[in-house]
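Now for my pick.
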Amino acid sequence: MCSDRFVSEWPEVHVAGKTEITQLKRRHGRRLLKLPGVSGVGVERGDGDDDYVLVVHVEEDDPSTREAVKRTVGAEPVRIVKSGRFKKQ
């Protein structure tokens, strides 16, 4: 994770395994991708070796986009990263 792209995250209070976060992505991924300003959803390593987090890539650091993400995933841990719009190659 590049620190200049990092926007915000919910407090990560518990260690989440890859399976748990993958299930979280399956539950919320499609709805997140339909939100204006969201360009991608993924699973990345958290701070520890066995710690994973749901990552939501956004086009801009927009408070309304962050609020929409929060409403969609609730209290689940998520990291929001400003990455711009993704383009097919």
Q: What stands out?
A: Strands lie at 6-9, 38-45, 52-58, 78-82. The first strand starts at residue 6 and ends at 9.
